[in-house]
């Protein structure tokens, strides 16, 4: 009977996920709080009418975010799969073609929006009182739209290209610039709402400049190369396809916000739009915690998927969800019990807003648990090439959210958007867990295509034990290859500085191929100059009887593939 001991792989997943989550969370803290600070400065310096204009412009911002997500997530997942297979040239060409496609689409979208600014703002429920403020803010955003899209896309791409630290530094830098400029221009020089938009755009511009050196490095998977498509390369549609669920999610947010503004603006005019702006900032705050735990699922699970390790993808899904609940639940409890703490940031004096906002904050906070569940499952689906199911779930959310909001507007108009969002998230969860059967792996683990999984500290007696276990699941020639190539390469790699934890895996792929894999964390770079060119052109999953070294989710991986029976 084969040995399956999940704890060792789990420990490495947690170590790897921490390296994704901690920089992502710090970056999100700054990245999400900076627009909040902009809203606070506008509310404090200019008043509630200019502040309400933000809610009419936000759907346009979300559409540009959707475009960035389409390219960033799609390209990022493609890069992760190339990381699993070792094909660097395909990753570079996919990245370059994505950049070109995003640039063209952004310029066209910004130009159309600029020409039709007034009708668009009227459609987004701008009132006569806040129309001028909304127009001024939107025009500055459109002029900087390229930087907004590339900053958004770059966050995903760099994380999947093993450089989350640069994402962190750039996000923090951008946020600090945004906050400082908002404070100086609005609080210090008492400039208008356009100054707040400029602060945001300039911060994104600086972040994009910081990304560029990474993309010019020769060793990066994502680097600028001639964008011509080679035979066997994925099409542009195939590159962008994994990003469609995230793109649809942002478009869904934009649609929900339009309906939200329609209902609240009709009920209470500028006061209702002010409510919407406060809740938008609350969602930004909650996203710090939901996104930091859900987004790494894509990078981690897609690498295991590229390796064709089905059990590894399930382990990622479960561990990330448990982590997310641990950080999200305490925050939600605080805001549910004390919603006035959040309201105090915006110096609200409007009696309608003071009366209705506490209950709205409580509903949105509770709904964020469902939002986190949906986001985690959607990211898992995107990583495992099941985007159509994720797209259907977002379609369900759009239909339920709009229908429920419009129906409930007749009964509880000031709270209808929040109830509608909660019902939509609940329906999507039921669909994915039930129809999609994504509950699998949350409670009980399944070995899937594993034939051996063990690990521990790599002491000589432990390595000898791994060799004995390998002999039970591999044929004699394969065992000899493991003993002659895999473990000696492992000993040479770790030298005297032995890692604390390793995992040893033997898996059988759907095509009958087997693979023996050692995963470990170590300071030594396995990609010495003499080895780098050898793996550039090859898909590691199809290099047989040779020990290949690669990076895997910030860890090191040594792998030998054995060809299955071809007769």
Q: What is the average of the pLDDT values?
A: 85
- Helix and strand content put the structural class at mainly alpha
Beta-strand portion reads 5-15%
Cα Rg: 25 Å
SSE ordering = HHHHHHHHHHHHHHHHHEHHEEHEE
**Euclidean distance between termini CA atoms:** 27 Å
- Strand line-up of the largest beta sheet: 1-2-3-5-4
Shape assignment = elongated
Largest beta-sheet characterization: 5 strands, antiparallel
Helix content bin: over 70%
* Strands, count: 5
Low-confidence stretches: 527-538
Number of discrete helical segments: 20
Care to describe what's here?
- With 567 residues, this protein is mostly helical.
- The protein is 72% helix and 6% strand.
- Strands 1-2-3-5-4 form a five-stranded antiparallel beta sheet, with helices on both faces.
- Helix 10 packs antiparallel against helix 11 and helix 13 (310-337) runs antiparallel to helix 15 (351-383).
- It is elongated, with a radius of gyration of 25 Å.
- The two termini are 27 Å apart.
- The model is unreliable at 527-538 (pLDDT under 50).
């Amino acid at each position: 009977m084969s040995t399956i001991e999940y704890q060792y792989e789990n420990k490495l997943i947690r170590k790897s996920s921490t390296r994704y989550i901690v920089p992502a969370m710090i970056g999100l803290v700054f990245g999400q709080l900076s627009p909040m600070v902009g809203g606070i400065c506008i509310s404090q310096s200019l008043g509630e009418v200019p502040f309400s204009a933000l809610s009419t412009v936000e759907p346009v911002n979300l559409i540009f975010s959707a475009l960035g997500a389409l390219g960033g997530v799609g390209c990022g997942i493609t890069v992760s799969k190339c990381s699993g297979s070792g094909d660097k040239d395909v990753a570079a060409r996919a990245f370059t073609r994505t950049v070109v496609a995003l640039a063209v689409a952004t310029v066209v979208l910004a130009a159309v929006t600029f020409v039709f600014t007034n009708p668009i703002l009227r459609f987004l429920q701008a009132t006569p009182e806040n129309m001028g403020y909304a127009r001024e803010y939107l025009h500055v955003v459109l002029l900087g739209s390229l930087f907004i899209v590339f900053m958004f896309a770059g966050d995903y791409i760099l994380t999947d290209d093993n450089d989350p630290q640069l994402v962190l530094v750039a996000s923090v830098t951008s946020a600090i610039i945004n906050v400082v400029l908002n404070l100086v221009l609005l609080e210090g020089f008492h400039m208008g709402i356009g100054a707040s938009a400029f602060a945001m755009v300039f911060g994104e511009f600086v972040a994009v400049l910081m990304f560029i050196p990474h993309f010019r490095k020769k060793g990066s998977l994502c680097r600028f190369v001639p964008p011509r498509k080679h035979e066997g390369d994925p099409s542009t549609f195939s590159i962008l396809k994994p990003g469609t669920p995230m793109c649809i999610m942002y478009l869904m947010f934009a649609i929900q916000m339009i309906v939200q503004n329609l209902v609240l603006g009709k009920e209470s005019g500028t006061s209702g739009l002010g409510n919407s702006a406060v809740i938008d900032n609350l969602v930004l705050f909650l996203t710090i915690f939901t996104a930091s735990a859900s987004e790494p699922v894509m990078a981690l699970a897609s690498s295991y998927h590229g390796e064709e390790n089905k059990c590894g993808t399930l382990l990622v899904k479960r561990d990330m969800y448990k982590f997310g609940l641990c950080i999200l639940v305490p925050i939600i409890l605080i805001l549910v019990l004390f919603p006035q703490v959040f309201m105090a940031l915006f110096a609200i004096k409007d009696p309608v807003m003071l009366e209705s906002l506490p209950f709205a904050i409580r509903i949105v906070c509770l709904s964020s648990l469902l939002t986190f569940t949906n986001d985690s499952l959607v990211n898992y689906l995107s990583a495992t090439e099941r985007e159509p199911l994720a797209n259907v779930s977002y379609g369900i959310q759009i239909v339920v959210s709009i229908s429920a909001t419009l129906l409930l507007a007749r009964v509880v108009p000031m709270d209808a958007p929040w109830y509608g969002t909660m019902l939509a998230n609940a329906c999507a969860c039921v669909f994915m867990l039930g129809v999609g059967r994504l509950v699998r792996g949350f409670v009980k683990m399944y070995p899937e295509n594993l034939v051996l999984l063990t690990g521990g500290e790599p002491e000589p007696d432990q390595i000898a034990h791994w060799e004995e276990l390998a002999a039970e699941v591999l044929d004699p020639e394969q065992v000899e290859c493991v003993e002659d190539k895999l473990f000696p390469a492992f000993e040479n790699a770790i030298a005297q500085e032995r890692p604390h934890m390793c995992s040893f895996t033997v898996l059988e792929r759907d095509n009958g191929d087997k693979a023996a894999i050692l995963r470990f964390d170590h300071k030594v770079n396995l990609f010495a100059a003499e080895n780098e060119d050898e793996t550039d052109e090859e898909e590691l999953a199809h290099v047989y009887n040779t020990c290949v070294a690669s990076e895997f989710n910030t860890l090191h991986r040594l792998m030998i593939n054995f060809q299955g029976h071809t007769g």
